[in-house]
Prior knowledge:
Layout: H1 2-14, H2 16-39, H3 45-60, H4 62-73, H5 88-99, H6 114-147, H7 149-156, H8 160-196, H9 203-234, H10 237-259, H11 269-277, E1 281-284, E2 290-293, H12 295-319
Antiparallel strand pairs: 1-2
Helix pairs in contact: 1-8, 2-6, 2-8, 4-5, 6-8, 6-9, 6-10, 8-9, 9-10, 9-12, 11-12
Amino acid sequence: xxxxxxxxxxxxxxxxxxxxxxxxxxxxxxxxxxxxxxxxxxxxxxxxxxxxxxxxxxxxxxxxxxxxxxxxxxxxxxxxxxxxxxxxxxxxxxxxxxxxxxxxxxxxxxxxxxxxxxxxxxxxxxxxxxxxxxxxxxxxxxxxxxxxxxxxxxxxxxxxxxxxxxxxxxxxxxxxxxxxxxxxxxxxxxxxxxxxxxxxxxxxxxxxxxxxxxxxxxxxxxxxxxxxxxxxxxxxxxxxxxxxxxxxxxxxxxxxxxxxxxxxxxxxxxxxxxxxxxxxxxxxxxxxxxxxxxxxxxxxxxxxxxxxxxxxxxxxxxxxxxx
Length: 323
C-alpha cells in the first residue's frame, strides 16, 4: 500500500495542471501576505506631517470648537454619563477625546497585528487555498479517466480498493503538505515583517497563526478527499467540478428561495467551511437573534460529507466496469 501511495504522489507531483495550480497558490500566498504588510506599513514622515496639519486645521475650525463647547456644557447629552461632572478638567479632556478630530480620521493606518491579520487576510488565503485544493483533487483523479490510463493501472494492481485508497490518500497528503507549507510561508513572512518593525509577537498572535494553520489543513484534507472521491465516482473532471459548483454556489440560492429563510444557509457546505476556517460563523435567525455555528460543528459536517461521498465512490470503483 505504501508503494502505491508513493507512486500516486509522484503522479500528483508531476501533473502539469497540478504544478500550475501550486504555482498560483504560491503567488497568491505571497500577494496576500504583501497586501497585509502594505496595509499596515508605518506612516512616513511626510504622511505624519500632513495628518498633523489636517488634525490641527479641523480642530481649530469654528464648527469643531462649537461642538466642543456644547459637549463641555452638557457632557451627559454627548454620551459621557460616567464623567465626573464636578471636575471641569476631566469634562474638558473627555469631550476633547470624544469630539475632536483624531489622526486615524485622516489616513492613519493600524499597526501590524498578527492576530487580526490571521482573522482577516489569513482566512481569505485559507479560503483560496481550499478552493485550489478542490481543483487539484478533481484534476488529479480525472486525468486517469480522461486518458484511459486507469485500465493499465488496474492491470498492474487488480485490487481496486487499494488503487482507490492510494489515490485518495495521495490527494489528502498532497493537500496537507501544500497548505501547511504555504501557510508556513505566510506566517513566517509576517513574523519577519513584525521583527523588522520592532513589533512584539505575543502568545495570542502565535496561537492565532497556529490555529489558522490546523483549521485550514483540516478543510484542505476534507476538500481533497471529497473532490478526489467524487471524481473517481463520476469519472469526469468537468462533471465533478459541476457538482462542486452546484453544492457551493447554487445550493445556497436554491435553499433560500425554497424556504424563504436565510436560516437554511447553515446547512450548506460553504457556511460550514467558513465556520471552520474562521473559528465560528455568526448567523441571525428570522427573529433577529444571533446564533454562532462553531468550528466543531463545521468540522463534523465536513467529516460526514467526506464519508457520504467516499463510500459510494469506493463501491462504484470496485464494481463498475473500467474501459
